[in-house]
Every structure is written in C-alpha cells, then in structure tokens.
C-alpha cells in the first residue's frame, strides 16, 4: 500500500481537505502533515505528497526555502508530488492568476512543470472570475477523456506552453490542458486544475498509484 501524505496548513481549503480525507481510495494509506513536519524531514517516509486546493501564497509563506527544497528532493529521489488547483499552481514554475479584484503573478520554487499555471478560466464559468464564495465562479465539467464523470472547477489553472507538458492526461472542454503529469529527477508529478478529489475519480487515483512504480 502506497503511503500518501496530505498537506494541511495555512491556506488549505477546508472543503478540498474534507473531500480528500473522505474520498481517497483504499489503495493508499494517508497521513496529515504540516509545514513543520516537512521541514523536519517527514517526507522521507512517504511515497506521495499531495497539496490540495486553497491559496498558494500562504503555501509560499510556510514552505519557501527549506520546505520546498525538501519537497523537490523528495520527488527528485523517487517520490510523487500531486497538486490539485492551488497545489497545481504551486507546483509550476510561474503563476499567473486573475480573480475577482486580484491578480497574482510570480515565480514558484517547486517548478516541477517548467511553464506557467494560468487561471482562472472564466470561459468555463460564463465569464465569472474566481471569488472564494461566489457560486457563479464554480462549475461542474465533463472532460473529453472522462465523458461519464463530472469534475468540480473553481479557479483552477491550465498549463502553458502545452509543449512543456510531458503528458496531458485530460483537457478542459475548451481543449486546454486540465491535468498533466511528468518526470522530475527519479520521481514524478501530477498537476490538476480540476478538483478530482470532489468525487471518486478512480482513473486519476489509479494514475497516481502508477506513478509510484
């Protein structure tokens, strides 16, 4: 059984976190960790490290420097990083995010995807920009690769340029990449702009298990 460590600290969405702890399939064991745990080396005992939805600037505040260096080392030496929504922005080299009344742009230290995580994507929400409690900026989407499934979208990103995405696992209805994966050193990463943890999307959980080798 693969051991997954789930990040829970300042900035993590309680909705996303609640989905994660309820919906992780039994092919994984799970443990909740925070920034202090990471800085103390806990990832040495993990197979997978997952950062879910929320806000990525607090992730930077808690993990920049030593924390991110340890996460990069964990993946480079064979671990798997999974980023969902804010965790996907955080796992990219550059963030370019526009929400209602805000814009966040800047480099990120993990840089597993050597490109830009760009969002939000108002073309998916009838031109409504992301707002935390704004229902009109949320949507349930069908992705072409998984036509029988519904995926929750709320402020997530796409990945640019697509030529830097090693594997595109799913696309938005617009054709833009929604879920990507790739190698980093001896390890792997999977980044998702949609909240696949909101429902039991076993195909993507199986993909994560396969990345562990």
Automatic annotation (TrEMBL):
SUPFAM superfamilies: Class I glutamine amidotransferase-like. The lineage of its organism: Bacteria, Pseudomonadati, Pseudomonadota, Gammaproteobacteria, Cardiobacteriales. This is Biotin-protein ligase N-terminal domain-containing protein. Residues 4-200 form the Biotin-protein ligase N-terminal domain. InterPro entries: Biotin-prot_ligase_N (IPR019197), Class_I_gatase-like (IPR029062), UCP016642 (IPR015834). It comes from Dichelobacter nodosus (strain VCS1703A). Pfam families: BPL_N. It comes from the Bacteria.
